[in-house]
Amino acid sequence: MTDFGLAFMRRRPCAGISVRQLRMTGRGDLLATGFSTDFHPAKIHYIEAPNGAGKSSLLSCLAGLDSPGSGTIAVQGAGTVTADPAALLAWLPPHDDFPLPVSVIDVVLAGRWRFHRGNPVASDITAAIDCLRSLGIGELSARSVDSLSTGQRRRVNLARVFAQDADVLLLDEPFSGLDEDAKRRVDDCLNWIADLGRTVIVARPR
User: Fold this and answer.
1) Domain spans, the chain
2) Which residues pair with 120 in a beta bridge?
3) Most exposed among 15, 83, 102, 155, judged by the fewest C-beta atoms under 10 Å?
């Protein structure tokens, strides 16, 4: 992949997540009887289950957006002591809903908020462009997201997540709506990111 970048990312010790007996009623079979596992750094973890089994509910709990009925979620290892949750977790929701017409580059720069705090500098813009190019959509940076196809919007949202450079990436069906070339690019990016020490958690249908 000649245009593969993500050069702004550096190898570092990162946090992992430990889940014990996580239960939620009415959210599918995955969480019905108690879900336990360890998500280790420097690895891609795939949560594969049929639609409706509770994959999105599990990721929502891991992201702190939902509360389980019982069980524990513990963040462990390097990087856990931080005043900024955005340095710890980056989340890709299952749907790409953008509330207002906004440019592609601005969406990706939103992922860099923890670095620029509303005043992006050249390094933030370079990182955002790197993410877009790595996903094969660098030429779309000035476009409005409401003019894009479903697959393009998915990749823009993924670029936002990558730009955040968090320890843990929670990705809810990142390959949804993508053609084979786009899927290959995403897969290459995820392997690169995991090799740099990040904890990558991917929910996808079986």
Assistant:
1) 15-205
2) none
3) 83
Domain 15-205 falls under CATH 3.40.50.300: yes
Determine the distance from the C-alpha atom of residue 17 to the mean position of all C-alpha atoms in its chain, rounded to a whole number: 15
Q: What is the pLDDT of residue 80?
A: 58
Structure tokens at 164: 């955040």
pTM of the model: 0.94
Rounded Cα distance between 77 and 33, Å, is 27
Please provide the distance, in angstroms rounded to a whole number, between the alpha carbons at the two ends of the chain: 28
Q: What is the DSSP string of 136-189?
A: T-GGGTTSBGGGS-HHHHHHHHHHHHHHH--SEEEEESTTTT--HHHHHHHHHH
How far is residue 138 from each of residues 67, 129, 132, 189, measured CA to CA in Å? Answer: 37, 6, 5, 15
Amino acid symbol at 1: M
Q: How long, in residues, is the chain? A: 206
Strand partners, 159: none
pLDDT digits (tens, 9 = 90+) for 163-195: 999 999 999 999 999 999 999 999 999 999 999
Cα–Cα distance for residue pair 70/17, rounded to 1 Å: 16
DSSP string, 110-144: HTTHHHHTT---HHHHHHHHHHHHHTT-GGGTTSB
For the segment 92-108, the average pLDDT, to the nearest whole number, is 92
Mean pLDDT for the chain?
Answer: 92
Amino acid code (one letter) for 32: A
Confidence of residue 28 (pLDDT cuts 50, 70, 90): confident
Distance CA 93, CA 169 (A): 11
